[in-house]
Amino acid sequence: xxxxxTALSWSILAFEILLCGFVFTRKVQRILPFFATYxxxxxxxxxxxxxxxxxxxxxxxxxxxxxxxxxxVNTTSRSLAIAELCRFGIRTYRGIWALVWRVLTALSIxxxxxxxxxAWGQPDRVAIYGATIERDLALASIFILAILFLxxxxxxxxxxxxxxxxxxxxxxxxxxxxxxxAILRNLYTGYxxxxxxxxxxxxxxxxxxxxxxxxxxxxxxxxxxxxxxxxIWCFALRKPVPAPSETPVLLPANVYRELSPxxxxxxxxxxxxxxxxxxx
Amino acid sequence: MxxxxxxxxxxxxxxxxxxxxxxxxxxxxxxxxTSSSPVNGNESLPGAKHYAYFPQIRQALSVTDAEYLMKNxxxxxxxxxxxxxxxxxWRFLEGLHEDFSNLARLGRxxxxxxxxVSRQQETQRLVLTLKFQMLYALVWLRLSxxxxxxxxxxxxxxxxxxxxxxxxxxxxxxxALSTGRITGxxxx
Lengths: 280, 188
Hints:
- The structure holds two protein chains of two kinds.
- By secondary structure, chain A is mostly helical.
- Chain A has two domains: 3-247; 250-280.
- Chain A has helices at residues 3-25, 33-56, 61-87, 94-120, 126-155, 161-189, 204-236, 253-278.
- Chain B has one domain.
- Chain B contains six helices and no strands.
- The termini of chain B are far apart.
- At the A-B interface, α4, α5, α6 and α8 of A face α1, α4, α5 and α6 of B.
């Protein structure tokens, strides 16, 4: 590792310790257990990868596999934290939740299947698999978060500041992940592809420095995005977490059954009149 | 297709843009930011405030008024008056848009506070709202270019007036039901 990588690794470790400290001091695990787990997973995977580097060397194959395993563990844990965010606050609105969870589950399944199919078609290389699946899962996370917030906005269900900060942080990480992994994957499958082929061993010395440089650059951008997001989360957690909002008082079911069709009928009439207005 | 950077990067930037736009607190919703409830008291229930000006607008847009102006006023003044009336109609149309939005919002509030919702009803309302936005934009454009005759707009105002009255009744009904429900729970 060079000086910059060492400095970044120490910084990310410091941010992760700080975040875990805030999470457990503010007892976030009581309201968002998967987010608390995610912060612990980040810290433990950083320590794990660090120990692997120390034990086997930064450029060893063990370090290489340890890095990609940690990426996949982090991505899975992040996906669970995002799923938890989707559920938070809406579940008490039973009618809307019954509608929303189906939409989000269908979308998640579709995007996960797409990620699987996309990764399946790749050449049998850990880095290419990893970059493809990480890109697709990050893309799925952004889509799900955007759909969730569109639905929330549509029904006027605002989120509390902490949850908003968490969603913003995930949004930043996922956006950078999609862009970075898309570029990285294109390099792996294009220009740098001979580096993965044993038949092209003669080209390895020439490509090695470029392969390392690409990886280093991507690691640096990825780590900066994570630090930025952790900064947002730590800032949101600087104050005690307010008690969750009270459960809303729901209307009797017949109110919706009676009024909703009537409102829709009137809205339709409204549109019919507008169409009439536009007729020559 | 997903392996094409020209598609993936603009796509992710657009979706992230929507996400961050929705996450940024806006001035309008500052008051409601601390609560996750769609209704914070009766004052936030939608109201048909533009309906209050309906008789005056109807008078201003009446065909007889326009004919009287064209017949008796000098052509320049008559044109000026008609232009101003069109401006009033344009502003009123904006107000009517607000009234439509309030009616649609009422539907969404009821859905949010209902223990069960119909997927069909919700989809229908979403489609109607999108259709309205499109039609409204077309009417707005035609009115702005002076291509929409005022008598047609007069017919529209009549219809909105009736809708607004029904909406006020519906809101009163919901307020009564919510209050009854809350009181009932407190007693229990």
